[in-house]
Please model this.
Amino acid sequence: MRKPLVAGNWKMNKTVKEASTLVAEILPGLQAISAVERVLCPPYPSLMLISAMLTGTGIGLGAQNMYWEESGAYTGEVSPAMVKEFCDYVILGHSERRTYFGETDETVNRKVKAALDKGLTPIVCVGETLSENKAGITADVVTRQVRSGLEGLNQAQAEKIVIAYEPVWAIGTGLAATGEVANKVVADYIRATLKKQFGEAVAQGVRVLYGGSVTAANAAEFSGQPEIVGALVGGASLKAAEFVSIVEAAAR
Model:
């Protein structure tokens, strides 16, 4: 059985003080739901404090990005070793990184390999834009992102990956794909590509999350789909009660 995973991507929100308040609010509810792997992904400045707050709770901590080099003259970047000091997870290839910061399938691939080398679990984001969706090329885009993002990995490495399907047109817009449509993308494009690259066991074992305007109101629609094994939650993860409700839906 694939254990559901729900990760909260706080994006560029919450000061350190605000982050500690949110974690204190959210912890009791999250700790009661052990059937789901729960991960919080705050901004970098809060990682040290929240790492201490989560120690012994069973709740995981993730970063929202990292660079692939170990160290060096890369002003403003954070290395895999720096992330690993506090985190077990890292979000890679989010559409906002691709859109605003020039990330490509190639750079995502380099980050995935660097994360795995440090023992981090990459949450690799894939998904099509609105224009790509309307042009009917969702299959091409998602297949390419999965294939290129995981290129050069062996089976053992691929088994450790988490993939998040996030249709870009649904992120922060209030629009969400239907559960049925998202499930079809996961089954026909993501798992099919994994099968070609790494075989049936990896294709069926990798957890694929849905992300894109996930709320307490629609979470059950996605978590109830057979090929979707959790969620990558944006705005709703900043509201303690709502995020706990989404995790509860995944547990059901």
